[in-house]
Amino acid sequence: MIRLLLSTAAAALLAGCASQLQTSQTLFGLVTPYRMELVQGNVITQELLARVRPGLNRRQVRDLLGTPLLTDVFHGNRWDYVFVIERQGQQAQRRNVVLRFDGDVLASIDAGELPTEQQFVSSITREAKYPDRKLELTEEERAALPKPPARAASAAEPSGPVRPYPPLEGE
């Protein structure tokens, strides 16, 4: 009976640790699992979308924006451009642009707030977290270093093998 209670309590504690890991993505603030960087879709910026205007045909739009990420079989006149980037330690970015066609001609553009190219580049650039390292000593620091000990005169060491070997070929 006691074993049953102890095993039930241990299972409950382990289940609590698992839910803690799922909710905050860290275990007691010490261990963070590695999360792979996720980048999907087409990057569409304000400058790129400014080149697309109603009246362009599908080929021209595809040349400017690339192949859409989603083309709905049931809505052949709708192209969805979705961009998602998820990095560990940063907020996920998600942008959607929906283009609607009337036949082969672009009829409307539905886009949320898009960044400029400069804003996008600055949002994905990682800053180095390494401190600046000192690569050279100053003359004062060199003078403060202890002098290396003087080498004692060593006896002449043999330059070749100490033991003579028999000749390789018979004489």
UniProtKB/TrEMBL annotation:
Domain Outer membrane protein assembly factor BamE: 41-108
GO CC terms in record: Bam protein complex
Aminoacyl-tRNA synthetase listed as a keyword: no
Ranges where the record places region Disordered: 141-171
Membrane-related topology note: Lipid-anchor
Localization terms from the record: Cell outer membrane
GO molecular function list: protein-macromolecule adaptor activity
Keywords assigned: Cell outer membrane, Lipoprotein, Membrane, Palmitate, Signal
Official protein name in the record: Outer membrane protein assembly factor BamE
